[in-house]
Amino acid sequence: MRAYFIKRFLLIFPTLFGITIACFMIMQTVPGGPVEQFVQKMKYNAQMGEGGSGGSNQFQSELTRRELENIKKYYDFDKPILTRYFIWLGKLVRFDLGESYTYGKPVIDVISSRIPISLTFGLISLFLTYLVCIPLGVKKALNHGGTFDNWSSILIFFGYSIPGFALGVLLIVLFGGGSFWSVFPIGGLVSDNFEQLSWFAKIHDYAAHLFLPVLCYMIGGFATLTLLMKNSLMEQLNQDYIRTALAKGLSYHQAVFRHGLRNALIPIATNLGMIITVFLSGSFLIEKVFTIDGIGLLGYQSIINRDYPVALGLIVISSLLALIGRILSDLCLVLVDPRIRFQ
What is the distance between the alpha carbons of residues 59 and 74, in angstroms, rounded to a whole number? Predict the structure, then answer.
């Protein structure tokens, strides 16, 4: 089994190479790149400068044509696309993700400044989701077909049918001072007077700002994890070893929680390795609704602004974390169920 994990780790490099070359080629061929944006900006300045005089337009147009080659050279667009890719790949090997076109700072600094925000939401929503969904799934399995199971299923599917960003708008209207109650603050992570607040008031203010966005982050995976836990446990309750445990004198409660629950957690364990991806988790729609400068919004803005270094940097880091996470998921599966052997 050690050979299996070594092989999986070695496969990270060719897989990551394939992902980066595909994404690089797609991004570099999409219209509206930095050179085109610079030309459009110069034309706009020419039209608006000096009251829109014709002399100014001609001067700016000639300036644009004269400096176009220099602009292409600055962005390395004067080279073939494969050459540009291997130049970028060479920097990547040296852990240099380049410099952002938009922010004028190293990409790693731009991304790292957003990671704490997305990491906060990712960890809190992940912890609360597992904390609620696993017991809820167990409760639904033990009361399958009962009143609690039916009503909770209605609520779960109702929440699952609402996209996170749409729920965010609804919550703002209801509880953010939109049209009904002003219970929770909206926008950002803290209030403007956060530094003047007492220690307890800071905790309350921070929690109040987090409540609605975290609820929107949780809603997507809530139903999936709950039903996965329920169905997995119900499958185990029908196994022969549960009937054997009952026949040996164990109570139903003991048979479920001593034997059935551990085996039922195996499908849940397959996703545990992906916890590593919470470093770059984020939904740009939810972050846009609540005015949060997280990773999701950064990725969306970098694509819209054709900020290739930032977009590619996010792709590289997220792809690497996802590949490592899948290996860790296999490892978690082995730890939960020692009977599993990978070849």
Answer: 22
Token reading at 53:
């005089």
Residue-by-residue DSSP string for 92-146:
HHTT---B-TTT-SBHHHHHHHHHHHHHHHHHHHHHHHHHHHHHHHHHHHHTTTS
**Distance of CA 147 to CAs 57, 63, 91, 151, 238, Å?**
74, 75, 60, 6, 21
CA distance 92 to 325: 21
| Contacts with 172 (C-beta within 8 Å, 6 or more apart), sequence order | 178, 186, 212, 289, 290
Tokens of 141: 């399995």
Q: Which of 202-206, 261-265, 281-285 has the lowest mean pLDDT?
A: 281-285
Per DSSP, the chain holds a count of helices (H) and strands (E) of: 16, 0
Q: pLDDT digit string (tens) for 7-56?
A: 888 999 999 999 999 999 988 888 777 777 777 777 766 666 655 554 44
The tokens describing 327, both together, are 């290996």
DSSP secondary structure string, 280-342? G---HHHHHHTT---HHHHHHHHHHTT-HHHHHHHHHHHHHHHHHHHHHHHHHHHHH-TT---
pLDDT digits (tens, 9 = 90+) for 53-68: 544 455 455 556 667 7
Give the three-class secondary structure for 12: helix
Residue 153 has which token pair? 């299923």
Residue 221, pLDDT > 50, answer yes
Furthest CA-CA distance within the chain: 97
3-state secondary structure of 343: coil
Answer whether 88's CB lies under 8 Å from 24's CB: yes
Quick one: 26 exposed, middle or buried, by C-beta within 10 A (0-12, 13-18, 19+)? exposed
User: Rounded distance, CA 261 to CA 312, Å?
Assistant: 42
CB atoms within 10 A of CB 179: 8
For the entire predicted model, the pTM comes to 0.81
Domains and CATH numbers, the chain: 2-93 (no CATH), 110-336 (1.10.3720.10)
